[in-house]
Amino acid sequence: MAITIEMVKELRAATGAGMLDCRKALEEANGDVQKAMELLRQKGMATAAKRSDRVTSNGVIELYSHGGGRVGVMVEVNCETDFVARSEKFRTLAHEIALQIAAAAPRYIREEDIPQQVLEQEAQIAQARAREEGKPEAVIEKIVEGRLEKFKDEVVLLRQPYIRDENIKVQSLILENIAAIGENIVVRRFQRWELGEAIGE
Question: Alpha-carbon distance 186 to 31, whole Å?
Fold first, then answer.
């Protein structure tokens, strides 16, 4: 199929990718704009992953209060330059991450942040539950693995489904922004408070 300049312009407007990249993606996708968008998205994600070791010493501390002051979030999101730190796209992402933390209450940023003792405790709980449910010994290990993965999806920010689109994880949302902005972006730390949560502890 012949690739027209209109098709290239349409894809560029939708993705923000360069003209040459748009043309190549359309050629590879045989003129299918949706498929070309997906190819560009994958390429952007791959490029974003390569940026993940670049130093991030700029950024923003985003504050968010929810439910009339019942939940408060403070999150530090870093990028490489002050220019990007001031951009609307980066600020919007930081705000979205704060909303995610308020709504989904993660306990850790990355999977590797979970203490080993917490994982062991969760594994023991899952094992005891599987035995109580009368599951055969041969499948208990698989059940424990599955429940540990589900636990990680619930408590790890980067593994959580994004609150505005359950089909993508927070990690993918950040990678898409890295691809669009062109700089590495890191969630450095966060704190979430909920009114009355420490009472009686």
Answer: 36
Q: Name the strand (E) or helix (H) holding 189.
A: strand 186-194
Determine which helix (DSSP H) or strand (DSSP E) holds 19, and give its type and residue range.
helix 19-28
The helix (H) or strand (E) run that includes residue 34 is: helix 33-50
Note the pTM of the prediction, 2 decimals. Answer: 0.71
Write the CATH number of the domain with boundaries 56-110+156-194: 3.30.479.20
CATH architecture of the domain 5-52 equals Orthogonal Bundle (1.10)
Q: What is the CATH T-level fold of the domain 115-154, as seen in this structure?
A: GTP Cyclohydrolase I; Chain A, domain 1 (1.10.286)
Per-residue pLDDT tens over the stretch 118-141: 999 999 999 888 888 888 888 888
- Sign of the dihedral defined by the CA atoms of residues 30, 34, 38, 40, in that order: positive
